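Feature request, filed as a ticket because there's no other form

It would be nice if the structure record came with a short human-readable summary line next to the tokens. Right now we just get the raw output. Example of a typical job, pasted below so the devs can see what we mean:
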Amino acid sequence: MFRNREDAGLQLAEKLKGRRLCNPLVLAIPRGGVVTGAVLAQELGAELDVVLSRKLRAPWLSELALGAVSEDGQVFLTRYAQEDIGVTKGYLTRERSQQLAEIARRKQIFRGVRPQAPVAGRSLIVTDDGIATGSTMIAALQVVKTQQPREVIVAVPVASPDRLEEVRCWCDDVVCLLSPEDFWAIGQFYEDFAQVEDEQVLDLLREFAPVVQPAL
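Raw output as currently delivered:
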């Protein structure tokens, strides 16, 4: 059990300290993952940025993810979404468009305070406050792996065991503190799992934004 996302980040950082990392960059999935990611970046002396992906919601239950879409438009679908005849291509097209619109909104406001960090040749630590279906994490990994990082490490406080195994296929290493068999929701492992708002994400990005040297 974690007190909050900051506590989870501190515990994750302890597992990562001592690793040889090349110009490390923490890429956090908004919104909750940015709180955890900020602590990781602080403790590891790394740069902080966001990677944008959104879950594709099931038509009968919005909390259930059919998959996810990344900011470059790539779609990852879960196995049951591919097999479920009740999920039509038309629905998925509409849901993808809606989530891409939200990604575009977030990209506009987040990139206004933090230009996208370069990825090539660096050690990436991709994080969130937990992994339930794994969809948003895998969609994010699909994007970052095309940008030629040196290595990709997924670091999360808690994850569903079966979904964690699927995520392993998309990265070089996984650091996860808890992977219990009785997993049913990320929030069950936090004493405080309050919703994170855009303004908190913006504050953290401003805090970690690189200093721009004035032109001579």
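Something like this underneath would help us a lot:
The domain at 5-53+116-207 is CATH 3.40.50.2020 (Rossmann fold).
The chain has a mean pLDDT of 92.
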